[in-house]
Amino acid sequence: MTGIMATPPPLVVALDVPSLDGAARLLDRLRPAVQWFKVGAVLFTAAGPEAVRMVHAAGGVVFLDLKFHDIPQTMEGAVAAAADLGVALLTVHCAAGPRALEAAARAARRSARLRVLGVTRLTSAPGRGGVVRAARTALAAGLHGVTAAAGEVRAVKRACGAQFLVLTPGIRPAGVDAGDQVRVATPQAAVRAGSDFLVVGRPIAAASDPLAAARAIQHEITAAWERRARRTGVDGATREDGAPPSYVAAGIEGASSG
Ligand code: C5P
Questions:
Q1: Ligand 1 nearest-atom number relative to CA 65
Q2: Longest C-alpha distance within the chain, in Å?
Q3: Of 48, 85, 115, 236, which is the most buried if we count CB atoms within 10 A?
Q4: Distance of CA 180 to the CA centre of its chain
Q5: Cα 77 from Cα 61, distance rounded (Å)
Q6: Which of 199, 200, 202, 217 to mutate to test the pocket of ligand 1 (most atoms within 8 A of CB)?
């Protein structure tokens, strides 16, 4: 026993809309149930840092998914700027190479709350080739984790350790259209595999009732997490390998999904 009160992995809802007003409407509808929000290329390009500030003002936690892929000095400056915005999660591309990833890890130390994740391979691409190698590169450079498909979580954790964060996009509840995503998984499959954060966009944003869709996914996450905890026999405080859930160990605030 670790004594850590663990919680289910958070649902992160992608605010993939091209205006601050549209994002504000979605945020307002979801905020009663959802704490974590993704600000990505669509919203950030349209509305800039104001989108991040808006989520923070509503009491939310931000995953800034801008997937930086640049030379080391630019990487360092961009990550430093994100750290100063107060976001909790940020993505950079593993393909930028070890020196650029080291620069990102260095800049991330400006903020106690920021965790930088390396993008291994987009979930819209077929095949899992190179995912574990990219994760090892991220770990060696000092990043906190990676993004990968749910089907790759176990392999990444085996290679990089249970504490190494894995965020999984490409989440689709059973029966929901995959769209352009290829390496998809249901929420319960992602939880069973050990995902630390589940990112969901269109299945919530495009639903007729986004709040109900978010709550349904959270119920599925919680039920799967409780089953997993029962299987481990340690009331959810530790994972199968005895290590605490990595987002708890990483000290990330607001890790609750509801
Ligand atoms: O709408 P959907 O649920 O497919 O949204 C998934 C979100 O996760 C999108 O915002 C996408 O940019 C993001 N993402 C991804 N694959 C990654 C990293 C982030 O799909 N490897």
A1: 19
A2: 47
A3: 115
A4: 19
A5: 22
A6: 199
